[in-house]
Design goal:
The protein has about 800 residues and is an alpha+beta fold. The protein folds into four domains: about 110 residues, Jelly Rolls (Sandwich), CATH 2.60.120; about 190 residues, Galactose-binding lectin (Jelly Rolls), CATH 2.60.120.430; about 140 residues, Immunoglobulin-like; about 280 residues, TIM Barrel (Alpha-Beta Barrel). The chain is built from 17 helices and 42 strands. Strands 33-32-39-38-37-36-35-34 form an eight-stranded parallel sheet. Strands 21, 22, 25, 27, 28, 29 and 42 form a seven-stranded mixed sheet that branches. α15 runs antiparallel to α17. The longest helix is centred in the first third of the chain and has 26 residues. The radius of gyration is 31 Å and the shape is globular. This is Glycoside hydrolase 123 C-terminal domain-containing protein.
């Protein structure tokens, strides 16, 4: 009887606890897609390419394609997933997505709804087929598992909302809520961005409230509220407040200076390899949700947004019991997707036993026992690089530079920067990241030392026209944890003055986008441009596509003329390229109004000593734009205007536009060779732009082909967040990093600016050599040897000439200069 009573009590207890047990079961149900209902396409090793026919398969919101496989090669491969529908008949009418697959095992997850074609149109259901293959038809990749998984059922008592467009992908386990949902209020704008996963890449802007019936009690609210931005736009509101049940759960207020520091420049405050992986420094930093415990008392959950339109934004929302883990598991899935979509390569450096400081400059030098001697001409800059390796952490190392001095005490000035590690795309279109110290920062007080993370110090030494020839000795001193290291160097200034370039080399240029966002910053745009021009001029660049006003009215035409005068003040005397003004003018005025505006501008400029620029008329156009382009060009070339036109060519089909082009700006996509350039120059100027190896293209190749100039995209063109390389269709293109406040004495730059600068040094040594060739047989022979070393065809030059070879070729010129100087 006792045992029966005990059994009865246990049964009664279990019965009483059953609702709680069921609730616990619901709360511990994770959102990892269940495989029970998955459609298995591959379950054993399968070679690529792999083709699957959908045959009317019903794809629903939240369905995902999941792949596992292995890259058996020792280098990365590009895996491509192609999906067609009934309307797909070419590349632009189907879905095409590339992934970088590192050596070893890989896994990928792709949403199967909300897909976009390469023509940027929705890929409507039903799908017809899918092809998975590798670029270049590599046979080194295998698939081991491919399946289509349905979204998991949402646990009871969990509200999971994915705000966005009806044709956007839906995050698994979430409910799609679009602008037409009756639970919403506000003047809603749907946002869809190219970056992020299916939860964060879209959302609703202009929200006032979201309200739905919900059980009273204590709940945990998680809110994804970051709008990713695109191109030059990043949401820049200064106030935002969020209320739940009338109580504030989130309240932020910035001055515009605080916003720039805490939001726009936030990504500059931590380093790759030191402060976290790329998810922590990029994905989590940009998209981390806010979480708050709330109390519901009226059986209704109501959330209210307060602020300007862009502040009232949400991408997703989860409301769940306090001990539920649904939102946390969603974040883990988001992290996994980010790491799959953006594999990162990190250098592996060996540990150091002791502190070292060494000269690593990739410059021609003579090796002395105690230091390297660098032989330079006057009227130039010398780029040097030194490397620190530390066995321990030092958050406060001290670097002291001793300017190079000659025996008379005369010194050369220098600028010092350090390499800050960050993640970036190795090329603009790459779908992978690399850790690199390419962010060269001037504030050495922010530099730290870490084990297994080399710290490079970049020094630019100015050798002015008036510098006496002879030997100048300098040093860098490092004090770390009580240990002193000194590295010495010497500069041999030859009695040679390098000529200014007779071919033009420079950058497309715009002020940082934030100068347009706040009135207090807008008035500083001319100062920002002046700082950029001063830096470029000091480094010897002589070409620029400047930020020119759209000459639509008297005020803007006055600004345009002032900007042209500013170029002259900084030594940019060649005819510049007006890259954006004509395009903007054509977008806001009729054709007749545009011509009238330009005629007025011509009349105003004619009273000055200025020259009108080349007007960029087209930029890598599709053939269906050719007729309109030719019509506009005809009007610009009319006797009343007599304007000079320019166009960007990246495809041989665009050659039909050459007859209306006074400045042909071409890249490797068009087909670049010495013969092509010379044939085009019979009737127009020819510049190269955006070549794969700017150091080669703007230096030895420019000299060899006699092209008139080189222009590189872009001095400062970040996509949205300047320290997030993943938030655009292309990576950030930055040669000069944005700065806050007054013009810095030493500007933060990207290392690629030094590479382009080296091209100008090559070009100037080559010009010096040609000047000597008129009277010196050895110089003439070297000119011929160097011309023979550079192939006429760009593709061959790009394949055969490395930066190291270019430096050796420059070294041969410097050695000749030393011999000629010694004989005088």
């Amino acid at each position: 009887m006792a045992s029966d009573a005990l059994l009865s009590r246990i049964a009664f207890s279990v019965f009483q606890e059953l609702p709680a047990l069921l609730l616990i079961a619901c709360l511990t149900f994770n959102i990892t897609p269940a495989t029970a209902n998955a459609r298995i396409l591959i379950h054993s090793e399968t070679d690529l390419p792999y083709t699957y026919k959908f045959d009317g398969l019903n794809i629903k919101p939240g369905n995902q394609l999941q792949l596992k496989g292995r890259n058996n090669s020792d280098s990365k491969l590009i895996l491509i997933i192609r999906i067609d529908n009934l309307n797909s008949d070419d590349y632009y009418s189907r879905y095409n997505r590339q992934f970088s697959i590192q050596p070893g095992d890989f896994s990928l997850t792709v949403p199967l709804t909300g897909l976009k074609t390469s023509g940027k149109q929705p890929l409507s259901l039903p799908y017809t087929k899918m092809i998975i293959f590798t670029a270049n038809s590599s046979d080194d990749a295998l698939l081991s598992e491919v399946k289509i998984t349905p979204p998991p059922p949402r646990p009871r008592q969990v509200l999971a909302v994915d705000f966005g467009k009806v044709d956007s992908p839906v995050f698994p386990g979430f409910e799609q809520v679009t602008a037409n949902d009756k639970r919403l209020s506000g003047q809603l704008l749907q946002r869809f961005r190219p970056s992020g996963d299916s939860l964060i890449q879209d959302g609703l802007e202009g929200l006032d409230t979201f309200s739905t019936p919900w059980e009273n009690g204590e709940w945990k609210l998680t809110l994804w509220q970051q709008e990713q931005g695109e191109w030059e736009y990043l949401p820049h509101f200064l106030k935002r407040k969020i209320l739940v049940e009338g109580q504030p759960i989130f309240d932020e207020t910035y001055s515009h200076e605080q916003w720039l520091s805490d939001v726009y420049f936030a990504g500059s405050k931590k380093e790759a390899l030191i402060d976290g992986d790329h998810w922590q420094l990029i994905g989590e930093r940009r998209t981390k949700p806010v979480t708050s415990n709330i109390t519901i008392k009226d059986n209704t959950f109501t959330i209210q947004w307060i602020g300007d339109r862009s502040a009232r934004y949400a991408a997703g929302l989860v409301l769940e019991p306090l001990h539920s883990t649904f939102a946390n598991e969603a974040e883990q899935q988001r992290k996994q997707r980010f790491l799959e979509s953006w594999p990162a390569s990190k250098p592996d450096f060996p540990p150091q036993q002791k502190l070292s400081f060494a000269d690593k400059s990739p410059q021609p030098f003579t090796d002395h026992e105690q230091h390297n001697v660098y032989h330079v001409g006057r009227n130039t800059l010398l780029n040097l690089q030194f490397q620190i390796n530390s066995p321990e952490i030092d958050n406060n190392p001290v670097i002291v530079t001793a300017n190079p001095r000659n025996s008379s005490g005369q010194k050369l000035t220098l600028k010092t920067r350090y390499g800050h590690w960050r993640y970036e795309r190795p090329t603009p279109n790459a779908n992978e990241l690399v850790a690199t110290d390419s962010y060269l920062r001037a504030d050495l007080t922010k530099m730290t030392l870490q084990p297994k993370v080399p710290r490079n110090i970049y020094v630019q030494v100015e050798i002015p026209d008036e510098a006496p020839s002879g030997l100048y000795k300098g040093s860098l001193q490092l004090l770390s944890k009580g240990t002193l290291r000194v590295v010495e160097f010497a500069i041999d200034v030859l009695p040679v003055t390098l000529p200014d370039m007779n071919q033009s080399v420079g950058l497309y240029l715009e002020p940082a986008p934030f100068y347009e966002w706040f009135p207090a910053n807008r008035q500083l745009k001319p100062l920002a441009t002046a700082c950029d021009l001063a830096l470029m001029s000091s480094m010897g660049f002589n070409n620029v596509a400047p930020p020119l006003a759209t000459p639509k009215d008297d005020e803007s035409r006055k600004t345009f003329i002032q900007q042209m005068k500013q170029l002259r003040l900084f030594g940019f005397d060649d005819v510049p390229l007006a890259y954006t003004p004509l395009k903007h003018l054509l977008s806001i005025q009729s054709a007749d109004e545009v011509m009238a505006s330009l005629a007025t501008l011509r009349g105003q400029i004619s009273s000055t000593s200025l020259q009108l620029p080349y007007w960029s008329l087209y930029d890598e156009p599709h053939p269906d734009k050719f007729t309109t382009i030719k019509t506009t060009a005809s009007k610009l070339h009319s006797q009343s205007l007599d304007m000079r036109t320019a166009g960007h060519l990246n495809n041989p089909k665009q050659s039909d536009l050459l007859d209306v082009t006074d400045l042909a700006i071409m890249n490797h996509g068009y087909g670049v060779s010495k013969d092509t350039i010379e044939s085009l120059q019979s009737r127009r100027k020819v510049w190269l732009y955006n070549m794969p190896a700017p150091r080669l293209a703007a230096g030895f190749y420019l000299w060899h082909t006699h092209a008139d100039g080189y222009l590189q995209w872009h001095g400062r063109m970040p996509t949205a967040d300047p320290f997030d390389p993943t938030d655009g269709r292309e990576g950030d293109v930055i040669y000069m990093y944005p700065w806050q406040g007054s013009c810095p004495n030493v500007m933060d730059i990207h290392k690629r600016l030094l590479d382009l600068h080296e091209a100008t040094i090559d070009l100037r040594w080559l010009q010096w050599l040609e000047n000597q060739a008129g009277s010196n047989a050895e110089a003439r022979a070297l000119v011929e040897a160097l011309r023979s070393a550079v192939p006429d065809d760009w593709d061959k030059a790009y394949k055969n000439l490395s930066n190291e070879q270019l430096m050796e070729m420059r070294q041969s010129i410097i050695e000749l200069a030393k011999r000629l100087s010694a004989s005088e």
